[in-house]
Amino acid sequence: MAAGLGYKEFTTGDVLTAADANGYLASQVVMVFASAAARTSAIASPQEGMISFLKDTNSTEYYSGAAWVAIAGGSTDISCRVYAGGATSLSTTFASIAFNTENFDTDTMHDNSTNNSRITIKTAGKYSIGGQINIAANSALGVRLLLNGGSVIGRIFQGNSGATEGANIDTIYDFAVNDYIELQGAVGSGTATTSTDQQTNFWAVKL
Known about the structure:
By secondary structure, the chain is mostly beta strands.
């Protein structure tokens, strides 16, 4: 698709060519999509200056040439919070926590069944991210945030202090589209299972 050509006043009898349609019209209208995911599926190569409206967040965004950016005035709530409705078994080696229940997800960042350990970024930008893991008592509990299956971007390890063990972590990070993060846990000895309630949770909020 061609980049926008500017403004043109069409008159009766003008022939509207494919180049005109692409350059004067398609790149310069406000396109309406159900969500950021639907927009990404429809526009493989967005052009700088494109404008879109997302129905799920009631937000209007423009393409800067590198990312979709919210236009002030609309709702810019991009957030996700999930929790563990089922248990994940932890050992002394870090493992990703499965999350099969959503409190909310305004940008289709999480799926309850497919790759449900992941929160996947659909709108680039800086996010506050974090989570909490709760297990039965153990000698220690470690929690970390893993980026794209390889880079640790946050980590905490603490000793046991009671009949149950809980630890939480949070950080701020600048993400690209399709980056994904996972909340991982490990125990100091033996094995333990995560709680099957909202005490084991994971979240991301766009700043």
